Task: inverse folding
């Protein structure tokens, strides 16, 4: 299960990382042939690993003057709110089209085939807000880039992006408009 | 003597609760009503404005955690997508697993599915087969309960895997759920009654 997952090499490895990495399940050929899907639901079934995941992010961002945690639908809704609650930030859901009831701004982004769209409520961001963007995984970085654009268009300063998993070969890190990226595990 | 009887009846009517928890007022007033969404005539109760108030969001989670922390809940099942916003924080605080209940074709592993009725047509909820073990005690979480169709589907999924639904918890509900009500045989606990708005 953990064969293809390894921790970040740059930092001294936190002892909690191994438990987090080994609780992530890889499901071959989902959603289509050739894709090795990183399934975080098995991490969520492990209360200690889930808590360690949230704690690592909270430790990274406590006292860093972050006023917004923006989570990308839907798995960003699982990790974002506990982080927001712990650091005292607002939580802003970034959603697929037509899910948010109020007035929204939309950002289209490119998929492998076709485009998709992310939306945010107008009025969620206030002047001076500093934002963290959270999702479970970064692949090509397209969705995260759209999220950054939404927040910046509304006047927020995006401080960093945070994900549980990175697929470094897809170079998503380079598509984040020079924003730093913090991840817990890399999968090759 | 008569006054005492009246007070006792009042208490009984309110489920034994004498005073409203002071946190509920801010919770209720943090919710925004959006008329005619997703279609004409529907007064949509929007919880995103509550999420913009860290203290109020904290209070919501605290109130659920206070209720469930000593009930030996082993898993919290959250219904996609707004159940994902509240469920995990409750699970983390009480030391339970978190199980996402999802729309079709989102979960990558082997799933069980439960269809349910909408006003027009049907929808479907899925759960990973290995998420639960027999007899595990489960709390189901969503943001809003109206007809209870989605919650009923969630209850069926949990029970089909042999686990036990202890309660369903929702931030908001229509009036009949305010003082506790049941869906089938399962109790539903709602923090605040949803807001109405006359156009």
Result:
């Amino acid at each position: 299960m953990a064969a293809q997952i390894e921790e970040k090499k740059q930092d001294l490895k936190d002892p909690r990382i191994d438990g987090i990495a080994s609780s992530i399940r890889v499901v071959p050929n989902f959603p289509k042939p050739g894709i090795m899907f990183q399934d975080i639901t098995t991490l969520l079934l492990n209360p200690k690993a889930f808590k360690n995941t949230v704690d690592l992010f909270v430790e990274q961002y406590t006292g860093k003057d972050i006023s917004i945690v923006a989570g990308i639908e839907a798995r960003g809704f699982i990790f974002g709110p506990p982080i927001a609650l712990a650091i005292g930030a607002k939580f802003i859901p970034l959603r697929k089209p037509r899910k948010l009831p109020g007035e929204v701004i939309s950002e289209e982004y490119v998929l492998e085939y076709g485009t998709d769209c992310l939306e945010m409520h107008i009025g969620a961001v206030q002047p001076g807000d500093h934002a963290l963007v959270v999702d479970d995984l970064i692949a090509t970085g397209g969705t995260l880039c759209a999220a950054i654009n939404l927040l910046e268009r509304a006047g927020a300063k995006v401080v960093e992006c945070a994900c549980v998993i990175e697929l470094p070969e897809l170079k998503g890190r380079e598509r984040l408009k020079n924003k730093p990226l913090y991840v817990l595990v890399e999968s090759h | 003597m008569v006054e005492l009887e009246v007070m006792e009846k009042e208490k009984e009517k309110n489920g034994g609760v004498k005073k409203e928890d002071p946190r509920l007022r801010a919770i209720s007033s943090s919710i925004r009503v959006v008329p005619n969404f997703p279609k004409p005539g529907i007064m949509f109760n929007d919880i995103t404005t509550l999420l913009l108030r860290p203290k109020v969001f904290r209070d919501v989670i605290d109130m659920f955690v206070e209720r469930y922390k000593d009930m030996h809940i082993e898993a919290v099942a959250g219904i996609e997508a707004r159940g994902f916003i509240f469920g995990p924080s409750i699970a983390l605080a009480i030391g339970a697993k978190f199980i996402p209940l999802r729309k079709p074709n989102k979960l990558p592993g082997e799933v069980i599915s439960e269809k349910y009725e909408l006003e027009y047509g049907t929808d479907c909820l899925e759960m990973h087969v290995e998420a639960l073990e027999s007899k595990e005690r489960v709390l189901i979480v969503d943001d809003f309960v109206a007809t209870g169709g989605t919650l009923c589907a969630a209850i069926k999924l949990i029970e089909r895997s042999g686990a036990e639904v202890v309660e369903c918890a929702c931030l908001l509900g229509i009036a009949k759920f305010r003082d506790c009500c049941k869906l089938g045989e399962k109790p539903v606990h709602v923090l605040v009654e949803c807001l109405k708005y006359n156009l």
In short: Chain A has a mean pLDDT of 94. Chain A touches chain B at residues 25, 27, 30-31, 37, 39, 41, 44-47, 50-51, 54, 73-75, 77-79, 81-82, 84-85, 88-93, 95, 98-102, 121, 124 (CB under 8 Å).
